[in-house]
């Protein structure tokens, strides 16, 4: 699963955004994001437009990678949940399979317990959506390769 390139279709993109919106509402969070392990935003709740999600996603991915290194030193496979507590805002990070990371930013309007409860349910749903994405990407990848002929390749590189 790690090496396969995924193709995110509009249907799955909309499902993931809807899951982020619902998780934000149900957990009283400020923002929710789904990012990939490379630090790219995959989906986000609507309120995420108010912040620099590109930088946030990149830094979270770096945090996950660094924490993964710590886990290996300690003999763990991974730390699946990370939590950072600030004075006003808190960051809850959950690994979703081998590809995705769920990020929830919340403040005093919510509690860590509520966020953890809602994240658990959302993570299961996000996993199911990613299973569909992987399945569809695998089917398309095989089809695209078999549809390209030697003549197609020759015509791409010809000077005519």
Helix and strand content put the structural class at alpha+beta
CATH architecture heading:
2-Layer Sandwich
Q: Return Rg in Å.
A: 19 Å
How many structural domains? 1
What's the helical proportion of residues? 40-55%
CATH superfamily: Dynein light chain 2a, cytoplasmic
β-strand amount: 15-25%
Biggest sheet strand line-up? 2-1-5-4-3
Which outline best applies? globular
Average residue pLDDT = 86
Give me the number of helical elements: 4
State the separation between the terminal residues, measured CA to CA: 40 Å
Q: What is the CATH third-level topology name?
A: Beta-Lactamase
Give start-end ranges of low-pLDDT stretches: 142-146
Secondary-structure element order, as H and E?
Answer: HEEHEEEHH
CATH class group = Alpha Beta
Largest sheet data:
5 strands, antiparallel
**Secondary structure tally: strands:** 5
Question: What report would you give on this structure?
Answer:
The chain is of the alpha+beta class and 160 residues long. The chain has a single domain (11-145), classed as Dynein light chain 2a, cytoplasmic (Beta-Lactamase). The chain has 4 helices and 5 strands; from the N terminus they run H-E-E-H-E-E-E-H-H. It has helices at residues 10-27, 53-73, 112-147, 150-156, and strands spanning 31-36, 41-44, 81-85, 90-96, 100-106. A 5-stranded antiparallel β-sheet has the order 2-1-5-4-3, with helices on both faces. A hairpin with a 4-residue loop joins strand 3 (81-85) and strand 4. It is globular. The chain starts with 9 loop residues before the first helix and ends with a helix. 27% of the residues are buried.
